[in-house]
Write a structure and sequence with these properties.
flat; single chain; 54% strand; 56 residues; mainly beta
Length: 56
């Protein structure tokens, strides 16, 4: 399995493969997503959406 980086551009969350240099959409159509974190032990992802004022 290739290493990857999860990131947000505020409107979607993406995953980029660091070997192949390609990316995929993980969570589309967000309003203002920031503060992304991934818990690799539980395989869960968390982010804050400033528009909704929530942590997902």
């Amino acid at each position: 399995k290739s290493p990857y980086l999860m990131f947000t551009n505020r409107h979607e969350i993406r995953r980029i493969d660091l070997v192949k240099k390609d990316y995929t959409q993980v969570v589309p159509t967000l309003k203002n997503a920031v503060a992304l974190d991934v818990d690799v032990t539980t395989n869960k992802m968390y982010w804050c959406d400033l528009y909704h004022r929530k942590i997902f």
